[in-house]
Each structure stands twice: as C-alpha cells, then as structure tokens.
Amino acid sequence: MRGIRILQGFVLLCILLVPVVIIVFLKTMTSNTYEIPIYYESGVDNPLMECDFVENKQHAIPDFSFTSQDNETIGRADMEGKITVVDFFFTSCPSICPVMSTEMERVDDVFRDVDDVQIFSISIDPDFDTPEILQEYATLHQATKGKWFFLTGDKEVTYDLARCGFILPAMDGGDVPDDFVHSDKFVLIDEEGRIRGYYSGTNREEVDRLILETKILLYGKE
After folding, report:
1. pLDDT digit string, tens, across residues 102-143
2. Residues annotated in the binding site, as ranges?
3. Which of 37, 111, 129, 204 has the CB geometry, 3.0–4.6 Å to 117, for a possible disulfide?
4. What are phi and psi of 181, to 5 degrees?
5. pLDDT by residue (tens digit) across 51-68?
6. In whole angstroms, what is the distance from residue 63 CA to residue 142 CA?
7. Residue set of the binding site for Cu cation
C-alpha cells in the first residue's frame, strides 16, 4: 500500500511539472516577437470617392502645413524620421477632449526627453482655436515645448486631412460645440509617415498600449 502511494505521488508530481517544463522550454528555446501592423499597405477602400487615394499602394500621411501655439509652421515635413502621435480635438470641446488631452499628458511625460517622438494635436475648430488660444491650452496641459505641438490652420484642409490622411471621421459643428464630430483616437505614425496604430484616447489601457508600441517602434529605429 505504501508503495502504491509513493507511485501515485510521483505521477502527480510529474503532472504538475509538465507546465513548468513547457514554460521553461518556451522561454529558453523560442523568441517572442511583438508585431505592430502597418495599416493600408494595399491602399484604402474609398466607396464614397471622397478622397483621392492611390489604389494598391501603401497609404501614407499626405503633405500639410499648420501653425503651432508658438506661431511656428509645423507640418508633414517635420514628421520625417520621427515617430508622431496625432489626435484631433478642439479647445472648447465639452465632452471627450479634456479626457483625451489629460491622457496625452501621459504620453508627453513618458517621451519628454526623447527627441525622436513628438505629438501633434490638430484643432478641428480653427476659427476659434487661434495660436494664442492654443498656447493657453498647451500651458494648461503642461505641454513640453518642442515636443507637443497644438496646430491650427485652414478648416477645409484640416477636415480633408482627418478623413483622407488619418482615415478618421470629422464633421464641422459651426458655432455649436456639441455639434462637432471627431474621433477619440490617437494615431501612431512611424518615421515613414505610415499609420501603425489607432488607440482610444479616453481609455487608459489603450493609451498604455500606445506608449508600449511607441517604445517598440523607437527601439526598432536604433
């Protein structure tokens, strides 16, 4: 009887050790990779023909030029060779923008001393959001100078850029803040101007993922 119990104990021990052996094998004999997708490698579907997309070609952010909170001209050329996190917002937004900007503060803080990462927050209400207004907003959110740019420019260009460049919804609300429509997404753009990810700017876990994937892209550049 005692021998049977010893045998049973040995079998149970072996069963319990199997997961441990598998984990050790995976950690020592395999390598883990974290794949970050490249969006729209074969072009963008354009069923409504609103945008002049090139068929069967990698989509990249088109040329644009806006004015920053410091009255500097900032645009597509400044994205070359850098990783850029982009969102669309407006300073008088009564709903999601304050949360988005607070979450973007975390992104700014993490990459404060990293020259190859920058943030573009583009206003969809350029009639109200002058560089002076954007400067106040930047100060409110403790934006790092030369890192986090709040941008304003021609309204038609802005909306075309949102829809056809970053593939995000945007709708002019006129004089009624509640009528403006824009996405809550933060968009991760690599050094070649390709879209690498969309993340909800109102969801802390999604922003954590953005920070992680930005670091992975950054490490891949080195």
Report:
1. 999 999 999 999 999 999 999 999 999 999 999 999 999 999
2. 93, 97, 182
3. 111
4. -125, 125
5. 888 889 999 999 999 999
6. 28
7. 93, 97, 182
